[in-house]
Amino acid sequence: MPDYKPVPVEVARQIATQFEKSIVVIQAQDPVHQCLHTTTYGVSAFEKEQAAAAGRICSRALGVDWSQCINYEDFHKDYDPARYRQCQETLQAVELFLADMVRICGSDEMEVVTSEALEQMQARVKACLVPHPDPAALRPE
Q1: What confidence score (pLDDT) does residue 139 get?
Q2: Which residues contact 15 (CB under 8 A, 6 or more apart)?
Q3: DSSP secondary structure string, the chain?
Q4: CB 39 within 8 A of CB 7
Q5: Is there a contact between 127 and 83 (Cβ–Cβ < 8 Å)?
Q6: How many CB atoms sit inside 10 A of residue 38's CB?
Q7: pLDDT digits (tens), the chain, 141 positions
Q8: What is the rounded distance in angstroms from the CA atom of residue 87 to the CA atom of residue 129?
Q9: Which residues make Cβ contacts (< 8 Å) with residue 23, sequence separation at least 6?
Q10: Rounded to whole angstroms, how far apart are CA atoms 76 and 87?
Q11: Which of 1, 29, 82, 138 has the most crowded CB, counting CB atoms within 10 A?
Q12: How high is the pLDDT of residue 137?
């Protein structure tokens, strides 16, 4: 019997990117190993949770016994890195926005946005980069 080939999350991510979707659920029947494979992908941490829940619902509806499931890739193991990446992207967006404000308005008109204010804003956004002591608390109910 050949080795089992799970559908990588990267494939679901590519589908999401190509077709501009925020959640992807792939159900694939493997006749050789006689199992149903589920791969899920969500763009944001919240959408990852929604995709995983949808995958579980679909699998159960198709008769999957979850006690027999094997996890090949599980974003929960990397929940903090996903949150970290999301915060980095937010920080970059804020920095680009502020740079555009300064460029558009000119430095003379931007006296309200001081370097101290920018540093405070940056510190607030960077605060979300610190791993949360309880990642489960970040998950939507």
Answers
A1: 44
A2: 21, 24, 26, 41
A3: -PPP----HHHHHHHHHHHT-SEEEEEEEETTTTEEEEEEEESSHHHHHHHHHHHHHHHHHTT--GGG---S--GGGGHHHHHHHHHHHHHHHHHHHHHHHHHHH-GGGGTTS-HHHHHHHHHHHHHTTSPPS-GGGGS--
A4: yes
A5: no
A6: 21
A7: 889 898 999 999 999 999 999 999 999 998 998 888 999 999 887 888 889 889 989 988 888 887 777 777 777 666 666 667 777 777 787 777 777 676 666 655 555 556 666 676 676 666 665 554 444 444 444
A8: 6
A9: 16, 40, 41, 42, 43, 47, 50, 51, 54
A10: 17
A11: 82
A12: 45
Structure tokens at 106: 């000119």
How many residues are listed for the chain in this entry? 141
Q: Which two tokens stand for residue 75?
A: 């974003």
What are the CA-CA distances from residue 135 to residues 45, 56, 79, 132, 140 (Å)?
11, 20, 7, 6, 11
